[in-house]
Amino acid sequence: MSTPLERPHVWLPGSPGHPPLLLLHGTGGDEHDLLPLREQLAPQAPVLSVRGTVLENGMPRFFRRLCEGVFDEDDLRHQVEELATFLRAAEQHYDVAPGAWTAVGFSNGANIASALLFGRPDSLAGAIVLAAMVPYRDGPPHADLIGRNVLISNGRRDPMATAEHTSTLAEQFRTAGAEVTLLPHDGGHTLDPRLLPRMADWLARTRP
Predict the structure, then answer these.
(1) Interior CA angle at 179 toward 88 and 9, to 5°?
(2) Could you give the CA distance from residue 111 to residue 129 in angstroms, rounded to a whole number?
(3) 15 φ, ψ to 5°?
(4) Of 33, 35, 29, 84, which Cα lies nearest the Cα of 56?
(5) How many CB atoms lie within 10 A of CB 78?
(6) How does DSSP classify residue 46?
(7) How many separate helices (H) and strands (E) can be counted in the chain?
(8) DSSP β-bridge partners for residue 56
(9) In the structure, what pLDDT confidence band is assigned to residue 3 with cuts at 50, 70 and 90?
(10) What letter does residue 32 receive in the DSSP assignment?
(11) In angstroms, how far is CA 81 from the centroid of its own chain?
């Protein structure tokens, strides 16, 4: 890439005064997958939806993994820096206040959102992470997340983002100072659309 903004993405302008959303898809998705969430979560919000640039068997991801459930943490750290650089360029190009984004990520997108909060906390105001695992096996980088809000929505029957992942991730965010809300559902590795109104309420209450 010759410039950061050549990374595939979709930008949807919003109404003045509405904090922007950063949409981050799951494995095999792209920058169009999560766009319908805008209408459900914050119809007037500006939206930046980004494609992961790592390919796994032809499927876009935001960082490599060594095998199922085992992340390449060196690549994860590298991709956090790449995404943070892209966001800085997007803020300048689209006239967005630095660090104003609330990330909404699913699965692999949720994991890069968590890693971005820990690794580059000034990049995000908060996050909604869906089907989220623990990005760093031995603990995340030290981060000051006071003033950040995080909502975790995992399925009780999720074989990948297990109850242990959920509790560990929540504790890591709380230890860093974030305000954490848990919104579980009874499904598996998916998003429960019945929870979207509650996520929208949370977003309206916690937005900067």
Answers:
(1) 30
(2) 8
(3) -85, 150
(4) 29
(5) 14
(6) -
(7) 5, 11
(8) 59
(9) low
(10) T
(11) 14
Choose among 16, 83, 7: nearest CA to 46: 16
Helix (H) / strand (E) element for 182: namely strand 179-182
Q: What are the catalytic residues?
A: 107, 158, 189
168-190 pLDDT per residue, tens: 999 999 999 999 999 999 999 99
Antiparallel, parallel or unpaired: β 47-50 and 21-24? parallel
Distance (Å, rounded) from C-alpha 191 to C-alpha 160? 14
pLDDT at position 1 over 50: no
Total residues belonging to the chain? 208
| pTM passes above 0.85 | yes
Strand partners, 193: none
Domains belonging to the chain, first-starting first, are 4-206 (3.40.50.1820)
Residue with tokens 């790449």: 82
